[in-house]
Design a protein that fits this description.
The complex is a heterodimer. In chain A, the strands form three sheets. Chain A has a seven-stranded mixed sheet. A five-stranded antiparallel sheet of chain A has the order 1-2-3-5-4. The longest helix of chain A has 16 residues. Chain A has six helices and 14 strands. By secondary structure, chain A is an alpha+beta fold. Chain A is elongated. Chain A starts with a strand and ends with a helix. In chain A, strand 1 and strand 2 form a beta hairpin. By secondary structure, chain B is α+β, with helices and mostly antiparallel strands. Chain B folds into two domains: 185 residues, no CATH class; 113 residues, Cyclophilin (Beta Barrel), CATH 2.40.100.10. The longest helix of chain B has 26 residues. The radius of gyration of chain B is 20 Å and the shape is elongated. The mean pLDDT of chain B is 94. Classes of the chains: A alpha+beta, B alpha+beta. Chain A: One of its GO terms (molecular function) is ATP binding. Chain A: Keywords: ATP-binding, Hydrolase, Nucleotide-binding. Chain A: It is an enzyme of class 3 (hydrolase).
């Protein structure tokens, strides 16, 4: 069920989801196509579609099989499986889908971070590992522009692209059993922010007072795929004051 | 209030059928692990099958019922009693104000669902009343129930009220006011020594060694102690290994996705799974058999049986028809006798 010449591949993901793979690399243009297609499907959902989950290079479409079955057109009535019907419905959207050429302006989200000391206990390790001073690590980390490729792993957790390899550092030998919400970390060539307290092995270089996961809001994630993220160093007193203001 | 927690047991949470439409923001779908049992419990008390129920894990929980209501317990057999009398599962029962509902040892299965006429009253968060423990979201204050928590029940609909009045007068010899009919054919927590879980080969099935593929559908698996609402961690003798190393990008997973991390012991993703994952997927459990896994205790064993995608779909559709039939059957019980 491939359609490699047209740039995508459709696969079943169980009896209630279909996966559309547009490629297998982390690539800006590819990622734009993924999110544009997910947005298009959401705008024109087919009967039985529940939701779309875009990632780096793929989109999963979750559906309710019985609703799909009951909404079959005359043409679709000959399908032997529900998957076949969903496949045809998704393919129809793909056929008329043209990835936007125009580069849309990215929304920039600034994330204040208090680096080092107790809020970033691994900053010294990262600096030593990279042969840099702590201030240099902060300057490099906060000097970069990062693109949100996808949200996953935890509510509101952004997979960010664009970190300088000069501050890359391996994961901790022993993961921490609990990492506080707001922690900003580095793992290999990736950087990220933990929206909720979870166990984890990332090197923690700072913490943001900003809530990335906001379950009470209509859109519970501060960051969306396609956003550009910039980190802004703040002092400990700014961090503490920010917290008060928000509460 | 309507129900007071006397003892919460090992883990009791408010659950419904899950939170949909937010997975793209990383929010887990969640919901009851054994959705079939939760839905049947709701239908038996006249509720819509999506109402919030209590998911009671292993034994030890007990509740004081503060006002009269119709209840049903479906799923694993945790030796439920109402005021000391054994409470029949898969059947609507009328509980008087002041009665005590208790759960004891696991006779079969490990999770049971308590539905109350009207449905448990907790606020909807992102369109669902289910509890997402790790995110401290939804359910009762985003957490598992504790002793002295007081839960409300939403106003019952007409079906529920008619059922309650019918059943309240059906007092049996043991003193319980219970329906004479039941839905125990929905039980999956069988007594078989080794259960079977049907699965379809996954998106990376062909990338595994022949030995691994044969082992997946040939060997016996044990449910690991680390299993939880997020996933069933399995232990098998032959480890599942890729033929060649594979660099995978994180992408969406689904309920029942069987991932094989480098250690070769697979994990079946359940309700509280992450929305995306980066491990190779060797198989996909048929939706209808998620309930079998949800009812297996750590330490118990089962085998996977390979089925085709078409068969998994057919089973799903048949399961949904059974639930619709049950709803219709409950309606028939409500019809006044001619």
């Amino acid at each position: 069920m491939t359609n490699a010449d047209r740039g995508w591949e459709l696969l079943p993901l169980g009896d209630g989801a279909l996966l559309i793979r547009f490629g297998d690399a982390i690539d800006e243009a590819l990622n734009r196509t993924v999110h544009a297609f997910a947005a298009r499907l959401e705008k024109e959902p087919f009967a039985g579609m529940i939701e779309c989950v875009p990632a780096f290079a793929s989109v999963a479409v979750h559906y309710e099989p019985l609703t799909v079955m009951r909404s079959r057109s005359q043409d679709e009535a000959r399908h032997e499986t529900v998957y076949e019907t969903v496949y045809a419905r998704v393919e129809r959207v793909l056929d008329s889908f043209v990835a936007a050429d125009a580069m849309e302006e990215r929304t920039v989200i600034e994330i204040p971070v208090c680096y080092g000391d107790e809020l970033g206990p691994d900053l010294a390790f990262v600096a030593a590992h990279c042969g840099l001073s702590e201030d240099e690590v902060i300057a490099i980390h906060s000097g970069g522009a990062y693109v949100v490729h996808m949200i996953g792993f935890a509510p509101g957790f952004p997979y960010l692209g664009g970190m300088s390899e000069r501050i890359a550092a391996p994961r901790r030998q022993t993961p921490r059993t609990i990492i506080p919400a707001g922690s900003v970390g580095i793992a290999g060539k990736q950087t990220g922010v933990y929206p909720i307290a979870t166990p984890g092995g990332w090197q923690l270089i700072g913490r943001t007072p900003l809530a990335l996961f906001r379950p009470e809001r209509a859109i519970p994630s501060l960051l969306h795929a396609g956003h550009e993220v910039r980190f802004k160093p703040i002092s400990r007193s700014d961090y503490d004051r920010y917290g008060e203001g928000a509460r | 209030m309507s129900l007071t927690v006397l003892r919460p047991g090992m883990l009791t949470t408010v659950q419904d059928l899950g939170r949909y439409g937010y997975q793209k923001y990383g929010v887990v779908a969640g919901g009851a692990l054994d959705t079939g049992a939760a839905r049947v419990a709701n239908l038996l008390v006249g509720n819509d099958d999506r109402e919030a129920v209590l998911e009671i894990t292993l034994g030890g929980a007990s509740f004081a019922i503060d006002r009269p209501m119709i209840i049903a317990v479906s799923g694993g057999d945790l030796s439920a009693t109402l005021d000391g009398s054994p409470l029949p599962l898969w059947r609507p029962v009328y509980a008087k104000a002041g009665s005590v509902l208790s759960f004891g040892a696991c006779a079969s299965g490990c999770r049971t669902y308590l539905a109350a006429g009207g449905g448990f009253d907790v606020p909807e968060v992102m369109g669902s009343r289910s509890t997402y423990l790790r995110g401290a979201v939804g359910g009762f204050a985003g957490r598992a129930l504790k002793a002295d928590d007081e839960l409300g029940v939403r106003p019952p609909n007409g079906r529920t009220m008619r059922l309650a009045s019918l059943i309240a007068s059906a007092v049996r010899e043991d003193g319980l006011a219970a329906a004479s009919w039941h839905a125990s054919h929905f039980a999956v927590a069988g007594s078989a020594e080794e259960q079977v879980v049907r699965a379809v080969p996954g998106t990376h099935y062909d990338r595994f060694t022949l030995e691994s593929r044969e082992a997946l559908f040939g060997q016996s698996y044990r449910i690991g102690a680390q299993s939880d609402r997020m996933g069933c961690r399995l232990e098998g003798e032959t480890k599942l290994l890729l033929s060649l190393p594979l660099e995978l990008l994180s992408e969406a997973v689904a309920l029942g996705t069987v991932q094989a991390p480098p250690d070769g012991d697979p994990i079946v993703l359940l309700a509280d799974r992450q929305t995306t994952g980066g491990y190779p997927r060797i198989a996909q459990v048929a939706s209808v058999d998620i309930a079998v896994l949800a009812q297996l205790k750590p330490g118990s064993r089962f085998r996977f049986e390979a089925i085709a995608q078409t068969e998994a779909e057919r089973l799903y559709v048949a399961g949904e028809r059974d639930l619709r039939l049950l709803r219709a059957a409950v309606s028939l019980k409500l019809r006044p006798l001619a």
